Amino acid sequence: MSIKPYAIDRMISAKSIAARIEQLAVEIEAEFSNTDKLVVVGLLRGSFVFIADLVREINLPIEVDFLEVTSYGDSMESSREVRIIKDLRDTIESRDVLIVEDIVDTGHTMKNVTQHLLRRQPARLRTIALLDKPSRREVKIKTDFLGFEIPDEFVVGYGIDYAQRDRNLPYIGKVRFT
Ligand code: IMP
Ligand code: MG
Asked: Is 132 part of the annotated catalytic residue set?
């Protein structure tokens, strides 16, 4: 696809993200304080930076696994269909599970993934997203833990892409077409 020229305006600094993650880790430790082991499931690819920083703040026994679903392709339009293209490596039956997502937009991805994983009968399933655009929601869903609520802007950085670009920015920026 062709990419329109754009600039990136700073929105959430690396420092603010790090500070928020410290607080989120405290909430997660409280929720799962009695766990024997927490399976932290990152949704690829957007959550890879967030999950890396998050697990290093969580002071609990954990395992890390990854799930990849398709939602957007390379466009900015939301597809309602969610298809698993890389499944979890290990079973989550009777396990404590935390799903880690980069950003919740229409809510379809989180809703589908949650429903799908619940069928595998985990002991507890909780969700966390770094960002949430509640004004874009199409299905009723709320994450158990959330980094930041943001307005209806297309964002990049800290793992999040625009057509696979800008995942390596250390901060969250918003895309402005020029
Ligand atoms: P949802 O199914 O509409 O909630 O879409 C969630 C997915 O869309 C996220 O996991 C992101 O991959 C992608 N997405 C949503 N908003 C943005 C954005 O502002 N920038 C980049 N990707 C986004
Ligand atoms: Mg995603």
From this structure: no
Domains of the chain: residue spans and CATH? 6-177 (3.40.50.2020)
Residue from 53, 102, 105, 132 carrying the catalytic annotation: 105
Give residue ranges with CB within 6 A of ligand 1.
46, 71-72, 78, 101-110, 154-155, 160
Task: Let me know: does 81 contact 74? Beta carbons within 8 Å.
Answer: no
Q: Whose structure tokens read 């395992």? A: 63
Q: What is the pLDDT of residues 16-73, one digit of tens each?
A: 999 999 999 999 999 999 999 999 999 999 999 999 999 999 999 999 999 999 865 4
DSSP structure class, residue 127: E
Of 75, 129, 76, the C-alpha closest to 104 is: 129
Q: pTM for the whole thing?
A: 0.94
